[in-house]
Specification:
The structure holds 2 protein chains of 2 kinds. In chain A, about 35% of the residues lie in helices and about 25% in strands. Chain A has helices at about 50-55, 85-95, 110-120, 125-140, 155-165, 185-200, 210-220, 235-239, and strands at about 5-15, 20-35, 40, 65-70, 75-80, 95-100, 175, 205-210, 220-225. In chain A, strands 6-7-8-3-9 form a 5-stranded parallel sheet, sandwiched between helices. In chain A, a hairpin with a 5-residue loop joins strand 4 and strand 5 (about 75-80). In chain A, helix 3 crosses helix 4 (about 125-140) and helix 3 packs parallel to helix 5. Chain A is globular and about 50 Å long. Chain B is an alpha/beta fold. Chain B folds into 2 domains: about 5-110 and about 190-275, 3-Layer(aba) Sandwich (Rossmann fold); about 120-190, no CATH class. Chain B has a 6-stranded mixed sheet, with helices on both faces. In chain B, strands 2-1-4-5 form a 4-stranded antiparallel sheet, covered by helices on one side. Chain B is globular. Classes of the chains: A alpha/beta, B alpha/beta. The interface of A and B includes residues 16, 17, 59, 89 and 107 of A. Bound molecules: zinc ion. Zinc ion binds near residues 20 and 37 of chain B.
């Protein structure tokens, strides 16, 4: 079967003009992601795992290589060079990114934060909130929190809100950056169940997990990134 | 997605303008004042596209020329050079070549503007409701009762209490003045809304309420917007794409998260670093 995502010789470095330095992040990364399967990215800190995800989502501009995404019409789009509007359209319909951090407006309720990707597709508030409620309950987020803004939530609650938001529009490709970093074992198990369910429905996933046991439980294949070769600063530490 | 606005080579020079103006201003020279003729090159060679329902950010420090872009689109300023096409249903308007009456019609019906200073957008000698009625009178509503009803709807949409309708906006808080401006701008349901530093100088909680309102409007009405701001937080929350301006030139453009997390230009890197 054709992969939904094929990354070829992806490299990313940062040119920091003020300091006149070039900071390497990831180098020569190759990987494939298939529908209904989860590919896990592993490797030591500084090996550029998060950079790979950010390049795929185009939060980072790749320095070299190709990021070939197969859209719903079976057309291949290179995320590294696609136009801004093409990328925005793919983000709206096909690709979602769940990071550890949640950016949202202070007045929005958890239900509306989770349902936002559906609103962007023109779904009504009523239907959006129903879908959001279903996901939040599957992720054991207490119902008393649903109408409150997530800004006040605990780290683990925020993460589950974030995950629900990433899943709600059923993207064809989901990028996950440590989605369970601050969850207790029981909630973590709920997340595992939900991820497995989404996989069985055909969602393709590329994920970084904090815990090796999650890789063992969820990954269909594993891509291990090498540690940075020349001992340079990791980009997170220097930006 | 359909394109709603296409701007090509937009320039605005204040002053006599000499042949050297453009070569001796801009980011490379770190000025927009021509040292040969003292003209001010507010913006030079600006090109951008805006699509239906999207929010584009124009980010820059004061003096970068960012307001000049929206002011020329709204016909507050006459550009020195450049073209702008506005696509409206099946019509297409070349903004800077159509006659003044046509421009006025677009300004009153199809564009909305919210200024940083409520004094520019509102008439303080009449009531909040009157300000909105003024704009509604230029559209297709003529009946007093209809106008009052619609003004009330708009004010409630922007969370201005109905009992404030007959008061002068001069008595309102800064946040409420901006919400009245937004209500007025939306009165004719324009497909294009221009927002020029609309939350500058307001408290954070007041700002948040207005930013929230702007996103709701975009979601509910599908209004395309250009948001001019120096505030990276505003850009991050509201916009999908961003243009970075320095000394009247575009130094960088891209998806907003990319511009903020992986800025390419030295100036943008400095701007983002100083905001951390
Ligand atoms: Zn000159």
């Amino acid at each position: 079967m054709n992969p939904i995502l094929k990354v070829e010789r992806l490299s990313k470095h940062f040119l920091l003009h003020m300091r006149g330095v070039r900071v390497p992040s990831c180098d020569g990364v190759n990987l494939e992601v298939h529908s209904g399967r989860l590919t896990a990215l592993t490797g030591p800190t500084g090996s550029g795992k998060s950079s790979v995800l950010k390049c795929i989502y185009r939060t980072y501009l790749p320095s070299a290589g190709q990021i070939l995404f197969r859209n719903g019409n079976e057309d291949i789009v290179d995320m590294a060079s696609a136009s801004e509007h093409t990328v925005l359209e793919l983000r709206r319909r096909d690709i979602a990114f769940v990071t550890q951090f949640l950016h949202c407006l202070p007045r929005k309720s958890a239900l509306d934060v989770v349902a936002a990707p559906l609103y962007d597709q023109g779904v009504s508030q009523k239907r959006g909130r129903d879908c959001a409620a279903e996901l939040l309950s599957r992720l054991s987020v207490p119902e008393r929190l649903w109408d409150l803004p997530p800004a006040t939530f605990s780290g683990g609650e925020k993460q589950r809100v974030n995950l629900a938001r990433g899943l709600i529009a059923r993207p064809r490709l989901l990028l996950l950056d440590e989605p369970t970093a601050s969850l207790d074992p029981l909630t973590s198990e709920r997340v595992v169940q939900l991820i497995n369910h989404m996989k069985s429905e055909g969602m393709a996933m590329l994920a970084i997990f904090h815990h090796p046991e999650l890789v063992a439980k969820l990954a269909d294949n594993v891509i291990k990134l090498a540690s940075p070769s020349d001992g340079n600063l990791a980009p997170e530490a220097s930006l | 997605m359909k394109k709603i606005l296409e701007i090509r080579g937009l320039s605005k020079v204040h002053g006599h303008k000499c042949p050297l103006c453009c070569d001796f201003t801009g980011p490379k020279h770190d000025t927009n004042i021509c040292r040969h003729c003292n003209s001010i090159v507010a913006i030079h060679d600006i090109s951008l596209d805006l699509y239906e329902g999207e929010i584009l950010g124009i980010m820059g420090e004061s003096g970068s020329g960012k307001s000049s872009i929206v002011k020329t689109i709204f016909f507050d300023e006459i550009p020195t050079d450049g073209d702008a096409l506005f696509f409206d249903n099946n019509e297409q308007y070349s903004l800077f070549t159509i006659n003044a009456a046509r421009q006025r019609w677009l300004r009153n019906h199809r564009f909305g503007m919210v200024y940083q200073s409520p004094h520019l957008g509102l008439n303080f000698s009449i009531s909040a409701g009157g300000n909105i009625a003024e704009r509604l009178l230029m559209s297709d509503l003529f009946h007093y009762g209809d106008i009052r009803k619609r003004a009330l709807e708009l004010l409630s949409r922007t969370e201005v209490p109905s009992e404030r309708m007959d008061q002068s906006p001069g008595k309102f808080s800064g946040g409420m003045q901006q919400r009245v401006q937004i209500a007025k701008a939306l009165a004719t349901r324009p497909p294009l809304l221009l927002l020029d530093e609309v939350t500058s100088g307001l408290d954070l909680s007041v700002q948040a309420r207005i930013l929230d309102l702007i996103l709701e409007i975009q979601r509910d009405l599908g209004t395309a917007m250009i948001v001019v701001t120096h505030d990276l937080g505003v850009v991050r929350l509201l916009t999908g794409r961003t243009i970075v301006l320095k000394n009247g030139r575009i130094v960088e453009h891209g998806l907003t998260d990319q511009v903020l997390e992986d800025p390419q230009d030295a100036y943008t890197q400095q701007l983002v670093a100083s905001a951390l």
